[in-house]
Amino acid sequence: MTKEMKLGGTFTFAGSSMTVNRMGYGAMQLAGPEVFGPPRDLDAAIAVLREAVAAGVNHIDTSDYYGPHVTNQIIKQALHPYPEGLVIVTKVGARRAADKSWPHARSRQELIEAVQDNLRNLALDALDIVNLRVGGFMGPVEGSIAEPITVLAELKRQGLIRHLGVSNVSPRQLAEAQQITEIVCVQNFYNVAHREDDGFIDILAGQGIAYVPFFPLGGFTPLQSSVLDAAAASLGVTPMQVALAWLLQRSPNILLIPGTSSVAHFRENLQAATLQLPREILAKLNSIGPGRSSHGEEGGSVGIAS
Length: 306
Description:
This protein is of the alpha/beta class. It is 35% helix and 14% strand.
C-alpha cells in the first residue's frame, strides 16, 4: 500500500470549501477495452482506486458514460462510503452507443437522466462537480452552449449538483457559461506536446479557475518525444513522469487526473508529484512551444504514437 504523500500541492475550487491535492486520478481506464463494458480484472480495478485514496488522492474524475455505468459502479464498490474530503468530478453531455461510439447527449432530458444516472451509480445525494462536455472528440467546436448549461444550472439550484465545470470549450464558450452560472473548472485537451491552451490557462489562473487537462499523457495514443526522452534519461525517470511533472510546474491551477488500471503504473505516475524539473530541462520542454505541430515539425520531434 502506498503511503500518503505530498501530491503536488493543493488547490481550492472557487466559491467552495473543496480543497484537493493537485495530483488526482482519472477513472476512465477502469472500464473494459475501448472504455466499454466491464474490466478484464475487477479486483485490480478496485485495488487501484483503494491505492489512490490510501496515497492521499482526493480528486477522482469519472463519468457515467464510461462503460457505460461500469466505472461509477466500480468506484462505489471500491470506496463507498466515501472518505471525508474526497471530491468526485463527473461529466455529462455524451453517451455510449452499442457500436461503442460517443454521440452527443445534450438535450434537457438527456442531461437530467445523466445526472440521475451518476447519482444512482455513485450512491450520492448530490454531485460535487459536473462538467458539461461539448465540442468534438479532442477539441472545442464553436457554438452556443447556453441551453445545456442552463439545464445544469437548474439542477444545481435544485441541490443535485454543487458546482459546475465545462469540458472541451473555447474561451468564448466559457464566457457564455459564466453569464449563466459560476464555473469552477475547465477540462480540455492539453499536454507538453499540445499547447494550444497556453493563453487560456493563464486567463483561468487569474480567475482562480482550475484547469484539468485530459489526456495529459496523450490518451489513446501516448506521447512520444525526443525532448521528453532526453529529459527523462538525464533525470533517471520515465518520459511520462517528466510530462506530468511539467504540467504541475506549468501553472498552479493545473490539476492532474492521469488514469490507469494498474497499481504499478499508478505508483509510477504518483512519483511525478515529487519530481522537480531543473530550469534547463524546463526550458527545453518549453521549447516545444505553444501551438507547435504535434507531428515533429518543430520542438524536438514531438509526436503522438499511432
